[in-house]
Design brief:
By secondary structure, this protein is of the alpha+beta class. The protein contains 6 helices and 10 strands; from the N terminus they run βββαααβαβββαβββα. A hairpin with a 5-residue loop joins β6 and β7. It is elongated, with a radius of gyration of 20 Å.
Length: 260
């Protein structure tokens, strides 16, 4: 594939990683993410079970095994952070509040993509519908994944990523070396059990409309399969985690069969 710089994709959603550094020992690491939506601050963490507002001791011990005796301190920090997010309306204010309370061990940094070594999807809870982030934020995450792959991945480096038309349902478009056009979509709301029927419908549509040079690449927020799905040569589906998207694009570029 001919190398070329990828045109910038729209990633105008500011997302911040929330880091925690235990007082006792160990290094700080991200344990959640915060973002702005409809004038309010939202945040989530896999350490807090769905339908709950307090962190789980077991999940904390798994995430920070070197500081498992500091759970009470962590819980107090989380409670304080929740209060800040409820009372502030701008992300910089939350970051400044964390900096002012440095003793709590919290800090916020802007998420610039997986080049930082963090797959943000792992921090966007466990996919429960009641806490699944809004589609705009998820699309920004997918676009950051694509930009990272286009600039860093040995196989995918130099992908021709194109910005879709305004108000399009697509996240991005990818032009393959053989001139096939890949339309990349984010699907937030389709459940894993309904993915197969949606893919069949899309495959039928492309055949009916005789779009032989097009491929539909779906990224499903609720799909957890480690392997991409490919019910036909023109339809591919993956989950949102970076390895899932990477695997799907590599197999597509190499035109290898993908087993459901």
């Amino acid at each position: 594939m001919k190398a070329a710089p990828a045109p910038g994709l729209s990633v105008d959603r500011h997302i911040k990683l929330v880091h925690y550094r235990p007082r006792s020992k160990g290094t700080g690491r991200p344990f959640g993410a915060i973002w702005q939506h409809e004038g309010a601050i939202r945040w989530t963490s896999p350490l807090i079970p769905e339908n709950d507002c307090a962190p789980s001791l077991k999940r904390f011990a798994d995430w920070f095994p070197e500081a498992m005796h500091g759970f009470d301190e962590f819980s107090a920090a989380v409670s304080w952070l929740q209060s800040v997010c409820e009372n502030e309306c701008e992300l910089p204010q939350v970051a400044q509040a964390c900096k002012a309370k440095e003793r709590l061990g919290l800090s916020c940094t802007r998420y610039e993509g997986p080049a930082e070594g963090t797959d943000l999807v792992a921090l966007l809870d466990e996919g429960g519908l009641t806490r699944l982030p809004d589609a705009g934020l998820l699309q920004a995450v997918v676009n950051l994944h694509l930009k990272h792959l286009a600039s860093e991945h040995a196989v995918l480096r130099g992908m021709f990523l194109l910005q879709p038309a305004e108000n399009s349902l697509e996240c991005a478009r990818l032009l393959l070396h053989d001139r096939r056009l890949v339309r990349i979509y984010l699907d937030r709301d389709t459940s894993a059990s309904d993915v197969a029927s949606k893919l069949r419908a899309e495959s039928d549509r492309l055949t009916r409309e005789r779009r032989a040079s097009e491929i539909s690449f779906f990224v499903f927020a609720q799909l957890r399969s480690a392997l991409p799905l490919r019910p036909s040569t023109q339809v591919v589906a993956t989950g949102m985690r970076l390895p899932h998207i990477t695997n799907g694009l590599i197999r597509l570029v190499w035109s290898m069969p993908i087993s459901p």
